[in-house]
Amino acid sequence: GAGVSQTPSNKVTEKGKYVELRCDPISGHTALYWYRQSLGQGPEFLIYFQGTGAADDSGLPNDRFFAVRPEGSVSTLKIQRTERGDSAVYLCASSLGTANTGELFFGEGSRLTVL
Amino acid sequence: KQEVTQIPAALSVPEGENLVLNCSFTDSAIYNLQWFRQDPGKGLTSLLLIQSSQREQTSGRLNASLDKSSGRSTLYIAASQPGDSATYLCAVIGADYKLSFGAGTTVTVRA
C-alpha cells in the first residue's frame, strides 16, 4: 500500500476484554515496529520484527501483550485481559531493510480506551 | 539506556519567526537520528533523517544538524507559518535497533 495502515483507528473496550490491533506495513518493508504513546509523551518501544520473527520484544510490558507477524507482512498486536492503564495510542512503523539505516514510516495509530 | 531530551517542551512564536528546536541524547553510539512531526490525534510524519556520518540535512524550510559526539541535534524551521503548528519529535536509533524518542516540542505559530 501507499503507507502504513492501522486498524481500528479507535477501539473502546471494557476492562478484562481481549483486543487485537492490526498493522499493514508498506509493501516490501521487512522491518516492523510497534510503539505505544501516552498523552503528552513520546512513543515507547514495544516490539521489533525483522521478517516473520520478533527480533526484540523487550518493550512488551507484561505477558498480557503479544504480537505476531506470521507471513512477514501484516502484524497483529494482541492484548489479553485489558486494564485501564493499557489506554494509549498504539503506533506501528515499518522500514525498508534493517531499521538502523532506513527511514521509519508510521501509521496513524490505533487509539485504545479501556473503560 | 538511551535517554532523549527535547527542549523547550512548548514554544509559541509569531508568524515569520525562525524556530529552533533542540534535542539531546545520552548515548552517542547512534546509527541515525530522525525528526518527526505529529499533529493532534494523528500519527508521526517523517521530516528529516540524518545518518550518523552526516552533519546536517535540509528539506525546504527545514534544516537539521547533528553533532554526534556531543549528543545534540537541532531542527531549524525558517520563516514559520501557522501550518507549522504541531508537536515535533526527535528520535535516535542505536545498535539495538530501537527508536528512542524524546517527549517532543509543541509549537504554536500565531498568525
Major sheet summary line of chain A: 7 strands, mixed
Helices and strands of chain B, in order, run as EEEEEEEEEEE
Poorly predicted tracts of residues of chain B? none
- Alpha-carbon distance between the termini of chain B? 41 Å
Helix coverage percent of residues of chain B? under 10%
Amino-to-carboxy terminus distance of chain A: 33 Å
Topology order of chain A in helix (H) and strand (E) letters:
EEEEEEEEEEE
Low-confidence stretches of chain A: none
Structural class of chain A: mainly beta
Averaged pLDDT of chain B, please?
Answer: 94
Radius of gyration based on Cα positions of chain A: 13 Å
Q: What oligomeric state best describes the polypeptide chains here? A: heterodimer
Task: State the helix count of chain B.
Answer: 0
Average of per-residue pLDDT values of chain A: 92
Describe the global form of chain B.
globular
**Biggest sheet of chain B, open or closed, and with what strands and sense?**
6 strands, mixed
Strand content of chain B: over 45%
By DSSP (H or I, 4+ residues per run), the number of helices of chain A equals 0
Shape of chain A: globular
Number of strand elements of chain B: 11
Indicate the percent of residues in helices of chain A: under 10%
